[in-house]
Structures are given as structure tokens and as C-alpha cells.
Hints:
The chain is of the alpha+beta class. It has five helices and nine strands. A five-stranded mixed β-sheet has the order 4-1-3-2-5, with helices on one face. A two-stranded antiparallel sheet has the order 6-7. The chain is elongated.
Amino acid sequence: xxxxxxxxxxxxxxxxxxxxxxxxxxxxxAGTVSNTGDGVRIVIEGESAALDAFLDALRGxxxxxxxxxxxxxxxxxxxxxxxxxxxxxxxxxxxxxxxxIPPDVPLCAACLAxxxxxxxxxxRYPFTHCATCGPRAAVIEALPYDRERTSLRHFxxxxxxxxEYDDSTDRRHHAQSxxxxxxxxxxxxxxxxxxxxxxxxxxxxxxxxxxxxxxxMKGTGGFHLVV
Length: 227
């Protein structure tokens, strides 16, 4: 049995596709999930009971940050699919896209632990996040939400980040703005005239603030004036 589910609401930028992939795999369902101009399209096939369980879980326990408005269901003939995959967004999805852009999300507990774990390769890395937390609206330049349509498109993934991105069991699976110190953006300190200043930018900013200076701190969504 095969079903096509067109899900609308806040379903992009909240880890919805990797969630659907893990759920389908756990229920031994095959098919695909992709972003569309309206939300997310899931095509699944397998046993009827498993399809019903998938739909119940989708409605009852979607990812945190997701908000489902409607699920349109269409039954289709089975095609003998054997695995489940996250596929490329609809080529025409960006035209007239009607997806709700998710807000930026505070760090989850797991990413916060990475940030302060000396053994983590993201120790003290300020742009740490995963598929369910971190910047969204601040980095999205166009829809549907894929890395090539965010400001992170300028930062190709290193092998370690690519491995996490491709691993369906990793919490950074298909995290579109994933980054690390080896491949992502970095902090720097600039003088008022725009010259790059040497040394640790955080320590430099702290010294300036202690001496009564003013720091313009650029984040993903604009500037904060710190005094």
C-alpha cells in the first residue's frame, strides 16, 4: 500500500524531513520525503498498519518547533520501493512558496553540552546547533529551506560535518546550516575603520567593554550594540 502525504504548516527548518525519515525507517516503510512550495511531501509504502502508525505519530508527536496545519492524504498504487530517503526539493518549489519561515531557535541541551565540552570538536564554537535548534529566519534567503538558499551556502561542509549531515541517526542529519570550526564561519574583531585585529575576538571585546568602550556585535540577524 502506498500513500502520498502533503503536509502544510511550519514544517521546514524544524528537522521535519529527518524526523519523517527516522520514523519511516523504524516502521519498516519505504519512500521519500522532500520540501515543496507548500510544505513537505512524504510518499510512503508498506503494510497498512505501519502506514497508520506513521500517520498517528506524525500528527501526535511532530518535531519540537513544528506546527502542522493540514495533511492531505492520497492513496496510490504500490511501486515496490525498498528504502526511505530524503530527496531534493521540488524544482519549482521556490516559485510562489507559501511555507511559514520558522523563527531562530535557542540551543538545545545537547548542543549546549557540545559548546562547553573540551572533548567536542565544537568546543566554544559560537555557531553550534543541530537540526532542531539554531538560526532559521536569520539565515534563510529563499524557500524551500535548503542550504543552497541560506547564507551558509558560502561554507562547504568538511568531511566530518558531511558525515553527520548524511547520517540518519545523527541529530545533525540534514541540518541545513550545520557548521564547525573547520568549515563554518568564524568570529573576528575589526577596528572602526574595518581593519582585522589580531588576537581572540572575545577577549578583545571583553577588554574593550571593561575599559568603557562600545562593541558592535554582529550576529546572524543584525547588530547588537554592547556597552
